[in-house]
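Journal club side-thread
Mid-discussion, someone asked how the predicted structure for our own chain would compare to the paper's figures. Pasting it here so we can look after the session.
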Amino acid sequence: MKTIKKTFLLVACAALVLTFAACDKVKSLVSGDEAAAPLAAEAKQQVFPAHIYEVRFSERDLTQNLPGRVDAVRCADVRARVQGVLLERRFEEGKQVQKGQSLFLIDPAEILASKAAAEAQLAAASANLESAQLVFERFQKVIGKGGVSQQDYDNARIAVATAKAGVLQAQAALQTININLGYTEVVAPISGIVGAAQVTEGALVGPAMQSPLAVIQQMDPIYFDFTQSATDQLELRAAIKSGRVEQVDENSVPVELVLADGSVYPYKGKLKFSEVTIDRTTGMYKLRAEFENPEHILLPGMFARARICQGVDKEAILIPQEMLIVGSAGKAMAFVLGENNIVQVRQVLIGEMVGNKFSVKSGLKPGDRLVADGLIQIGMMLRSGPVTIIPLPPEGAAEENAVPAGAEK
């Protein structure tokens, strides 16, 4: 009994070694590290039953997932326009504020004193104008009768003009002070969400401050800025020009947003614009989409991916992933039926996944017949010589692209 168990164990180990060796052989074919050796013509003919899949053109949306970040539609710094001590903060941090709403109060005492002085200067200038006007009116009455010289008359006229200029200057000074007095009440420049206050009551603030008092961001609607490779764009335009790809109207293309946790944002956006210049350092160009954001799920600076359809490929080749042995760097291998249903190894260049299928860039064409199952076993058999496939009938309802049993080309 022990001898039988030992013999069985040796046989199982040998079979396992052969299986791993066959898998390594298949992977080396896919990666291109080892050229496929010609099959020995004198080797014993091998047959294997398998389902057959015929390659055909399909239509698919050319959808890309492009990385980017959320950005506020409007972002405004709240700054002090006059110097003074901050007396009061009048908003709740992180809440919605409206344009024109009072946010901070700066001590107006110094500006009120300047206003009183300016009002006094205006009163003095007005009195000076009134005096000069009376003198000039008297001189006007007697200038023609020789009661005053021409020089005195001209001096009186010039004095009136000078006094009027003094009044205008005093009025302008008072107006400037009134404007500055209004700036002691710092109001919101836009409507949006206000962030944390950067200063506290009692701090000396003014126009020379480098940091703002607070920042307001408008987040509904909100922008999503993302980038696309200039190379991808050129390839798309070439495909559209050739007629293989049908262009989609950018104005009607919905943009989906895939968040960092993999969830899809519930609102679809729309493209706003695409940049007209390419970044010289990255070779990318910028696009912008706009999204509704009523619940403020999207926050400025948040990373996400835009899912956008830019065209419809009318001649796409899509192959179920189980019919390919995938290697590295986009390389894969397929088992294609040649003449008399003999298996041929075909190198395939694959692209992105579309559902459970790989898009094929090169290596396959419509009409090619692929082995749909048993790829590992066939790979092992190919080490011994040619393999002939016996097509099996489709299981259950006939699948799309399935080839009937016994069909040959």
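Post-session note: The two ends are 53 Å apart (CA to CA).
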